[in-house]
Amino acid sequence: METLDTWQWQMANRITDISSLRNYVEISEQQAGEIAAAGARFRWAITPYYASLMDRKDVNCPIRMQAIPSILELQNYNGMQDPLQEETQSPTPGLIHRYPDRVALTVSSECAMYCRHCTRKRFVGQPVQRTTWQAIQAGIDYVTKAESIRDVLITGGDPFVLSDDRLERILRALRTIDHVEIIRFGTRTPCTMPQRITDQLCDMLAKYHPIWVNTHFNHPRELTEEAAKAADMLLRAGIPVGNQSVLLRGINDNLDTMKSLLHGLLKMRIRPYYLYQCDRIVGTEHFWTPLTTGLDLIDHLQGYTTGLAVPQFIVDSPMGKIPLNRSKLVELTDDHAVLRNYEGQTMTISCWVEPRLALLAI
Ligand SMILES: *Cc1c(COP(=O)(O)O)cnc(C)c1O
Ligand code: SF4
Is this structure's pTM higher than 0.70? Predict the structure, then answer.
């Protein structure tokens, strides 16, 4: 049977009003007013696929919380528009050059679904100049001239809302640059619109290897058969798939949920890469957790479960991403170190090296 459930159908039939949303969840009149108010400030749109994962009755459903505007978005005291100073670190519109050897190139301001916790909430869903072909070309020209750049991260918005042809045009241009070694995509479509991962897309991407994809799952309920199939297709095209989660209050800030997310990802052969402390963005304050929440989670994962399942806990900043964990190095001198294992036991190891041998090693 010919399937109508294509990504184009998902995009064209996104839920953007209360009455359509009521096909998926129960919404009181008061909630309807709140959704309209918050949604007028920060754009919302939900794919029918993602909406189908929602709990009809539970307002605290983790899928709902990520997708449906909340009045809390308008009740912020501490957020900023652009705490990572992406706008001031852009030599061309939409190209962020923060590290010596790699850049992030924003090629789209659109997404399949607008996450309520989005770190680029300031411009996603808005028609912005820097995602025109001219701006993308200016970014590619910058990369061509900057020979230190060996890694280009294509991001957005979500780059995979662009057509295969548009994506190929970008890849073809980047692949004419000798010093670009790897190309990475950041896309949430395997989670919010897995229909986007088609054979045609995978075949096209595979022509431009080495390509890596990082996606964005936050909750085990997102790990569906459809998502697993999308990941499998990318992997079969030779594309390693990693995951970047955001630590979100009430969604994945407890050990059981986080463990089942991480184990579920491994079952789909997706490697957990980063777990982000939620950036301090206007309209996201209700998702923030204390720094200790993330540190505690890592403490209860490392050693207790498969090393591959444990992401790095990251605080992002204008000066780069900063991985955080409670140190296992209790004491360090020239001849010994005191180390702590995952269960809290300490041991002393000798680390003295004869100066003569230490010199040879340099
Ligand atoms: C996250 C990010 C990268 C990539 O960082 P990795 O740690 O290498 O994954 C590159 N540039 C910018 C501006 C970023 O925010
Ligand atoms: S898919 Fe990514 S860029 Fe788009 S709204 Fe979600 S977090 Fe933001």
Answer: yes
